[in-house]
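[09:14] KT: can someone run the structure on this one? pasting the chain below
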Amino acid sequence: MSARPLPVPSARRVLLLAFLILFVDGYDMFTLGTVGPALLAYEPWGATAATLGTLAAVTGFGMPIGSMLAGWLSDRTGRRLPIVVAVGLISVAMLLAAIAPNVVVFGIARFVTGIAIGGLSPLVAALVSDHGPRSSRTLYIAVAFAAFGVGGAGSAFLGSVLLTHTHFQWLFLPGLLPLLLPWPLWRVLPAGGPVADRARASAVGASVPGPRELFAAPLRRATLLLWAASFLSLALIYSTGSWLPTVLLRNGYAMTSALQFTVAFTLGASLGSIGLALLADRGYLRAVTVGGFAAAAVVLTLLPFAREQSTLIVLLLCALAGVGSLAGQALVVACMVDLYPGRLRGTALGFGQGFGRLGAIVGPAYLAVMTTVLATPYAGFFAFALIAVLGALAIALLPRRRAEEVGPDTGAQEPSSSAARRPAERTT
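[09:31] RB: done, structure tokens below
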């Protein structure tokens, strides 16, 4: 007998827990960028711009490991156990960062953190898509991923309040709060994922999903383009998250202004992603994703020339840049969910975002090189914009076929949300 869908209240509880998990993820990711100027000014560690880029890259280096392993396991064991383990691990790593006596130990803490948060993003995306209403799947994913920006805003806000009179490592102590989550996660989440249960009950349930299926002839092109889009979206997020305050300071903004703009960037992303998701769920997912990347490219190109404008205008530009940057990740994830069959969802998200996590390594290092080698203070902004342009191109080149047309298990997969609604829209 196939498993019954969870009732709506349970789906909402799952969404709430997913939001809390990614809030912590976002807080942690943006904390390195928030403390960046203070870390560079901390003489005992002797950090340089290259050190900051290396720390961001070290964080990203652990992410593909966590992402691929968690996604692959979740299609076999369900989502609950990997999520609980990752949430506990991130708290331990954040505590280590808060008490690290030197930059080497701090870097180790960031690497462990990367493993944990690398697994959380595909796990949460798969979990939400499992239990969210099919007709609002992109919205559910966007609401969960909006927590990423809210967490980043919380980091920037605490930085603006605390960094002027406390040590920068204090900002990592809130990372202990996830220790409150394992118990409710264990109580609310099912032991086995509903997708895995449906697969076992179907005619093709005996086959074991694996990464090789992502490169079967019908899916190969889409897989390569989605991996590229994931790489570019995460390169954009982690480069802006790690370098935006520093780049703004180099363009004449004050420390408090730079942190205010980071708050606008992250909150704009959170609110904007929900608006874009509502439009995407009406059948325009790919067009909206391309538009988000393009908007980020335009705004990040204009931002360095807006210093003489009013604070309100600059804050608005930062918010729009956040919409195109952070919201892009949620939309790329929604494109993956839209294309792949249900039984491959965890594996597809894990390996797709695992490859994308390499962008978390390359992005900050790329920004470090651009801002060091090129003499112009505008180099960072133009480097941000180039990543966004390439992301828009990757999504624009995706094939039009969807999971129900190209999936390897054509007898068992569920129709994609955007495709399922389009015929009805045409007949109304």
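[09:33] KT: thanks! The mean pLDDT is 77.
[09:34] RB: yep, looked fine to me
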